[in-house]
Amino acid sequence: MGTKVQADAKYHACQEARAKLSGQRSFSQEYSDRQVEVTGGPIGAAASDLLLSPGQPSDFGAWLSGLAAQPGVIYHLLEPLHHLLPGGRAEPRRCQLRRELEAYLRGHARAGEGRNCSGRCGRGSAPDPRQPCSCRCPPTQEVDGLCCPRGKGWGLLEVTVGPGRDLWGDYAGGTDAYVRARYRPATGPELVATTAVVPNNNNPEWGVTL
């Protein structure tokens, strides 16, 4: 009898200590540490624990219905496009499609954009020796070394002057022609650029950029 009373007292003492520490939560609630990762669907605060939380079943249904509009990529496989056609390597349509795709890609590849990317830089810039796919510009008051404007609203204005046709402005002979471009920015002085004069020619060719 004395042993039973002592055991009951220890049991009640343990129960009281556990209640103070856990706040009357069950064992499963106290030790329910887990990590859940949700991929796809309308992910929000309610979607972080859709399967194991005691929340409303409608939360899982709402997330499931949103997968069609916002799918999550769990697994993907890349294969050549001509593999979509049935048949093996000997299938004539497969071989023909492969040849056509190769010809299309070669014909539409941009020249100079290989591993050195030397064809991507525009006028006034050059490939970075350390990063060939990046362009560098000589630093000026307008742009920095990364070809970015130094101020808000700043940019580079280029005027390409091509050929002139059937110009007339001289009774004695051909036209003495030149092209002048003016640009008045919102602030600062007016910018003026002029080509060289092409004398005695009604169809002058300049081919310059101002």
From TrEMBL:
UniProt KW keywords: Signal
Domain of life: Eukaryota
InterPro entries on file: C2_domain_sf, MACPF, Perforin-1_pore-forming
Domain MACPF per the UniProt entry, residue ranges: 8-104
A GO-annotated cellular component: membrane
GO BP terms: defense response to virus; immunological synapse formation; T cell mediated cytotoxicity
Pfam families listed in its UniProt record: MACPF
SUPFAM superfamilies linked to this entry: C2 domain (Calcium/lipid-binding domain, CaLB) (SSF49562)
MF-aspect GO terms: wide pore channel activity
Protein name as it appears in the record: MACPF domain-containing protein
